[in-house]
Amino acid sequence: MLKQIFTPFLLSLLFVSLANCGPSPETKDLQVKAKQIIGALPAKMPGSENDTSELISLGKKLYFEKKLSLNETQSCNSCHNVEGKGAGVDNLPTSPGAFGKNGDRNSPTVLNAGFHFVQFWDGRAADLKAQAKGPILNPVEMAMPSEKEVLKRLNEDAQYPALFAKAYPNDKTPVTYENLAGAIAAFERTLITPSRFDDFINGDHKAISKAEQDGFKAFISAGCTSCHSGNLLGGNSYRKMGQVNEYKTNDLGLYNVTKKAEDKFFFKVPSLRNIALTGPYLHDGQVKTLEDAVKKMAYHQLGMNLSEEETKKIVTFLGTLSDKTRTN
């Protein structure tokens, strides 16, 4: 008799428990919006289908190679640190070069960079390979005098000639500047950083908390997605710095590349992935905290004065975009 009474009761408890395990209608709706407006980060970068393990291995060695700077003090990793929990930046306003002089822009993260539509703040390089060629010969950064000098160092090294030959088995002369840049780009194409927000988009409704979900709603409500959309939450367009309210800067941005008056003060919209780890912020590195960056962008780009509560909510959401292996 007791068994007959308790069995339906226990089953009803089980059904209630299972129902409570699923996402609420509100969370489901938010997941749909996240998928539509943002979308999960792809598992592979464009161009990586042709990258061999030998090419990636060579690229990684070159990425950390200080012989690529004139006084052998600087590597790609010096300004774009990917070691340990490094988020592909040096966390400085602007970066010192091989001889101590600083550049005039904040070093953007190399993480997920191969998904961007162009490289550098002003888009002067079309892709990772073109980008990799620049800093080595830049007099302020790595300061090598010529491609010829770079290749001389590599050819005189005990390991590089053989490593280039393995990475480029069909090339009669594998040690070239073009191949150096191609190898670095291949390594950088491995720097993909899936986040908890991707897990949320892909169906795990528990991947981000209620507070973080509220932050995403605040992010949408404030209009942040007018610039920061797509699976990078940016990195796919140019925008004028000071679109609504002027932002004082002497940097003319895209104009320096195109020389078109209408391009003055336009910069590539940065990706917000790993943004909680990559301060200080903006092209000049003058904004120290993420809270201030959110407030300033709302004011200068959207004409809004966010409250402390709204700012806190958005910052809470932005924390979900960090690489899961680089957060504590």
TrEMBL record:
<feature type="signal peptide">
    <location>
        <begin position="1"/>
        <end position="19"/>
    </location>
</feature>
<dbReference type="Pfam" id="PF00034">
    <property type="entry name" value="Cytochrom_C"/>
</dbReference>
<feature type="domain" description="Cytochrome c">
    <location>
        <begin position="54"/>
        <end position="171"/>
    </location>
</feature>
<dbReference type="InterPro" id="IPR009056">
    <property type="entry name" value="Cyt_c-like_dom"/>
</dbReference>
<feature type="domain" description="Cytochrome c">
    <location>
        <begin position="210"/>
        <end position="322"/>
    </location>
</feature>
<keyword id="KW-0574">Periplasm</keyword>
<keyword id="KW-0560">Oxidoreductase</keyword>
<dbReference type="InterPro" id="IPR036909">
    <property type="entry name" value="Cyt_c-like_dom_sf"/>
</dbReference>
<keyword id="KW-0349">Heme</keyword>
<keyword id="KW-0479">Metal-binding</keyword>
<dbReference type="GO" id="GO:0004601">
    <property type="term" value="F:peroxidase activity"/>
</dbReference>
<keyword id="KW-0408">Iron</keyword>
<dbReference type="Pfam" id="PF03150">
    <property type="entry name" value="CCP_MauG"/>
</dbReference>
<dbReference type="InterPro" id="IPR026259">
    <property type="entry name" value="MauG/Cytc_peroxidase"/>
</dbReference>
<dbReference type="InterPro" id="IPR004852">
    <property type="entry name" value="Di-haem_cyt_c_peroxidsae"/>
</dbReference>
<dbReference type="InterPro" id="IPR051395">
    <property type="entry name" value="Cytochrome_c_Peroxidase/MauG"/>
</dbReference>
<keyword id="KW-0575">Peroxidase</keyword>
<keyword id="KW-0732">Signal</keyword>
<protein>
    <submittedName>
        <fullName>Cytochrome-c peroxidase</fullName>
    </submittedName>
</protein>
